[in-house]
Amino acid sequence: MELTVGAILEGKVKSITNFGAFISLPEGKTGLVHISEVSNTYVSDVRQHLTEGQDVKVVVIGTENGKINLSIKRLEPKPQRENAPRSFTPRKEGAPQQRKERTAPTPPPAPKTADQLFEEKLKAFMSESDSKISSIRQYSDHRTKSRRR
Fold first, then answer.
1. pLDDT digits 0-9 by tens, 6-27
2. Domain finish residue from 75, 96, 123
3. DSSP 3-state of 61
4. What is the pTM of this model?
5. Nearest partner of 73 among 85, 90, 61, 88, judged by Cα
6. Is residue 11 exposed (0-12), middle (13-18) or buried (19+ Cβ within 10 Å)?
7. Of 19, 54, 75, which residue sits at a domain end?
8. Coil/strand/helix, residue 19
9. I need a labelling partner for 61 at 20 to 30 A (CA). Which of 24, 45, 90, 148 fits?
10. Which residues pair with 133 in a beta bridge?
11. What is the rounded average pLDDT of the residues 118-124?
12. Could you tell me which of 48, 53, 43 has the C-alpha nearest to residue 13?
């Protein structure tokens, strides 16, 4: 039997590791459910969700180099996000209803190149250096004037 991506199979948890669980599949094959594919919730320890010998239903999500990647969470319904309740502000009678304009999210700035990062560091260094030199000059000018008297 050739396993194809998307195939749903019954298996048994063979062993559990820190990074996932190995599942015994039909025809003596073994696949891995990575820790990130165990549940729709955060999983810090696979042993809190699975036990050795447990029967599980899995879906094949990939096969490469003879390794079979499986998922349990993709067979579970996705949890609904709880929307935070919106605050309600009653409007005054007779006042026109105002609509908030929705703007498209601004894309993140492009990552800086190595040259741009170097230029910024050089400018910061030069600025700091100039301020230190000017303070040294002021101090030395002050000392020279006081000696001349």
1. 989 999 999 999 999 999 998 8
2. 75
3. strand
4. 0.53
5. 61
6. buried
7. 75
8. coil
9. 45
10. none
11. 88
12. 53
